[in-house]
Design goal:
The chain is of the alpha+beta class and 244 residues long. Helix content is 50%, strand content 15%. The protein has a six-stranded mixed sheet. The longest helix is centred in the middle third of the chain and has 55 residues, at 103-157.
Length: 244
């Protein structure tokens, strides 16, 4: 998505949240290229910390600005590129199957796309490993928060923290868990989609269809065709002279 300076300028000084509703900080600036297109957005994270995010991780719409996690942004871009490559290969196969391009041209393009697919398969494996690591990271975070909830329950029941402190801490952790579960579900769906992407979806090379040639009308023969009909015999009668 291309962002222009006018699209982001409206959000300077305003908070920015991720796809799951977690507030990251506030927008404090952005960078543009010579075409006035935004290349990155600067965000104050709090406590004097700042981070710069590429425009591929920023979405603007419906009066809000949203941060897209790197794993999500990379997965979307890869899926679009992979699907587009497979589509081009299918179109080439269809053209070749209909006899609209020669075998030489088809094989030349096929080799180019084969190289692209091999490279993308390597990238896909790396992406899948990254997504699995992200799932494990969230699982560890979930376990950490669940352990925290168990600890504050014990402290509350033993009287070490009062009802108000317990309620405040518990509510905050529950909200945090809800956001993490949302991201984990999104991660698992994305992981499944990327895993199912497979170059074997491309059909095998078809046999070219021969051109259909209309039969030529028969050429008239120059040799006369004998008449095979039966000939009618001619009967000759001789009248005798009656004179002596």
């Amino acid at each position: 998505m291309t962002l222009l300076a006018k699209d982001v300028r409206l959000f300077i000084g305003k908070s920015i949240a991720d796809l799951y509703g977690r507030i990251l900080g506030r927008v404090v600036g952005f960078s543009v290229d010579i075409k006035n297109e935004v290349t990155s957005v600067e965000v104050e994270l709090g406590g004097g910390e700042f981070s710069s995010f590429p425009c591929s991780q920023i979405s603007v719409g419906d009066g809000s600005i949203v941060f897209i996690p790197a794993w999500k942004s990379n997965s979307n871009a890869f899926s679009e590129e992979y699907t587009s490559t497979l589509q081009r290969i299918r179109v080439l196969q269809e053209l070749y199957g209909r006899g609209e391009i020669s075998q030489e041209i088809f094989e030349e393009f096929s080799k180019q796309h084969e190289g692209i697919l091999n490279d993308m398969e390597t990238r896909r494996s790396t992406l899948i490993a990254t997504l699995k690591d992200e799932v494990e990271r969230l699982n560890a975070k979930i376990k950490e928060l669940q352990t925290f909830i168990a600890n504050i329950k014990v402290e509350h029941l033993t009287g070490d923290i009062d009802d108000q402190a317990y309620a405040t801490a518990n509510d905050a952790v529950q909200v945090g868990l809800e956001k993490i579960y949302l991201e984990k579900k999104d991660l698992e769906i994305t992981l499944e989609e990327i895993t199912k992407l497979n170059s074997t979806l491309v059909a095998p090379m078809p046999e070219p269809q021969p051109a259909v040639v209309a039969p030529s009308p028969p050429t008239p023969s120059l040799t006369p065709t004998p008449d095979t009909r039966a000939e009618t015999p001619i009967v000759v009668r001789i009248k005798e002279d009656p004179s002596p």
